[in-house]
Amino acid sequence: MLRGAGTVTAAGIAALWASGSASAGPSARGARPVPPGKIGFGLYSVRDMLAEDPEGTLAMLGEAGYAEIEPAYDYGNRTPAQFRRIADDNGLRVIGSHHHPGDFRGDAAEVTLERAAVLGQKYVGVSYMDGEQSHDGYLRMAEEMNRFGERARAWGLRWYAHLHDHEFHPDPDTGRTLFDVWLHNTDPALVAYELDLYWILAASVEPGPYLRAHESRFPLLHLKDGTPTAGVETDLGDGDVDFASILANLSHPGAHHFVIERDEQPHPVRTANRSYDYLRGLRISPRR
Question: Signal peptide position in this chain (predicted)?
Fold first, then answer.
């Protein structure tokens, strides 16, 4: 769901928050804030900073107010144990991490899963799957995802796949949404999904029906703003994504993790701070 274009400034949100009347979206009796302990930041959005100065980068995120982080592919040239100490020192939990599909195949899987366990993660997954964009291709990927999930469960982890736009495209032969093949052919006990609210809108698909019908399959959500159908990204609050209306589809917001991300890195520190302030001031109306 998209809202009308407009800019919500960090200063404006801070002022509303201080007055107790922040509402970055439709107001309604019983509207709730996004649980502050579940607001996270995707480290892909600060990947250049992280490579140069992981200690300073995580300190910046902790000072901004974040409670959780989600690494992508590496840990700032630190070992998992070193990275966890840096995160702990800054009050940050590593909630999940993005990897390549090959990191869960063969002997590489045990290395990936051991690292996630050292970091104290609850989730571990892939940023994409690398199969064929067809009904049969998605069936084969679903089978492999179940196997990935089995291996992760043996380590006390829940496996997940991050979603982009192409998963929500129709199969050229059947017309069926490709993601639905995954949804109905993966074991909910083994495979979860990270719904990216920007990318599903880029596919011209509304996220609300999926969140209502399959809420428990999406424990992690990627929050990214901009104009999805035009491929434009912004900091949260500066784009067209109607987060308040989308998140109102959740019956249990506290059961989810809200991970902020911006693929581009024009001003990563500003992105982290402005986006946190916006989300902290957001109010979610009760699901009806």
Answer: 1-24
Report the distance separating Cα 245 and Cα 286, nearest Å. 10
User: Taking the CB of residue 247, how many other CB atoms lie within 10 A of it?
Assistant: 26
CB distance 34 to 13 below 8 Å:
no
Does 156 fall in a domain?
yes
Cα Dmax for the chain: 55
For 144-179, how does the pLDDT look when each residue is reduced to its tens digit (9 = 90+)?
Answer: 999 999 999 999 999 999 999 999 999 999 999 999
- Domain with 193, as residue range(s), is 10-284
Q: Hey, which residues does 194 pair with through a beta bridge?
A: 162, 220
Nearest residue to 223 via CA among 194, 265, 255, 254: 194
Q: Which residues, including other chains, have CB under 8 Å from residue 52's CB and lie 6 or more apart? A: none
DSSP per-residue letters across 85-141: HHHHHTT-EE---EE-GGGGSTTHHHHHHHHHHHTT-SEEEES---S-SSHHHHHHH
Closest to 275 in 3D by CA, of 233, 247, 215, 218: 233
Contacts of 222 (CB under 8 A, 6+ apart): 42, 162, 194, 195, 196, 197, 198, 199, 259, 260, 261
**Rounded Cα–Cα distance for residues 121 and 130 (Å):** 24
Q: What angle do CA 204, 207, 211 make, to 5 degrees?
A: 160
Q: Is residue 25 part of a domain?
A: yes
4 lies in some domain: no
Element (H, E) at 269: helix 268-281
**Confidence label for 4 from pLDDT (cuts 50, 70 and 90):** low
Task: Tell me the C-alpha to C-alpha distance, in Å, between residue 91 and each of 40, 65, 182.
Answer: 12, 9, 35
* Alpha carbon 33 to chain centroid, angstroms: 18
